Amino acid sequence: TAGARRVLTMTLHVPQAVGFFSVPVDHLNALNVLARHFRERDLTNAVVVSPDFGNAKPATQFARLLGVPVAAGTKQRVADDRVVIETIVGDVAGKQIIIMDDEIATAGSIVELLARLRERGAGRVAIACTHGLFTGPAIARLGAQPDVDEIVATDTVPLAPDKRLPHMRTLSIAPLLAEAIRRIHEGESVSSLFEYT
To answer: Which residue in the list 57, 75, 95, 163 is annotated as catalytic?
Structure first.
């Protein structure tokens, strides 16, 4: 209505929302940006874990980029602010864990997943997400997790100074957005930015 002729968006929580636009939509994701960060470390004993099967596809793509296996929690939402993860499908015992989610809001799912991972003898944990919202009790919850070595999010959402923990890292998606805009302007493929071979 305002005159936009094309939309660039990053990791929609519900990808089907693209279908509600009457203009072309390029739905970008930050998996390559996040993977580049984690490739700098030894991943021989690592596994990517998704909190639920709804995020299993991007978690699988992320795991493929890192060359590691994937596991997933069986999450059920019992209230707006409460989830239950009954079990984890996949081998996590003694593994270095990289939890991958599209966004972290209150961190309820992450804390529940961490409890199940501990029960199954998982090792140290890193957490990665595209959108670090960190609302309500999220920072207190995440700060109280002794086995979390790192929390990595992109800069899609500005992170206020009072929401920063010492082991948080923020990765810029500006180069990705710039390259997508350049490709659109030059008539080149945007989707080829996200080929996971």
So the answer is: 75
Model confidence over 120-164: pLDDT tens digits? 999 999 999 999 999 999 999 999 999 999 999 999 999 999 899
Question: 25-63: string of b/e by CB count within 10 Å (b at 16+)?
Answer: bbbbbbbbbbbeebeeeebeebbbbbbbeebbebbbbbb
Are the beta carbons of 148 and 174 closer than 8 angstroms? Answer: no
Q: Say what the pTM is.
A: 0.93
- Distance between CA atoms of residues 142 and 93, nearest Å: 22
Q: Is 95 a catalytic residue?
A: no
CB-based burial of residue 4 (10 Å sphere; 0-12 exposed, 13-18 middle, 19+ buried)? exposed
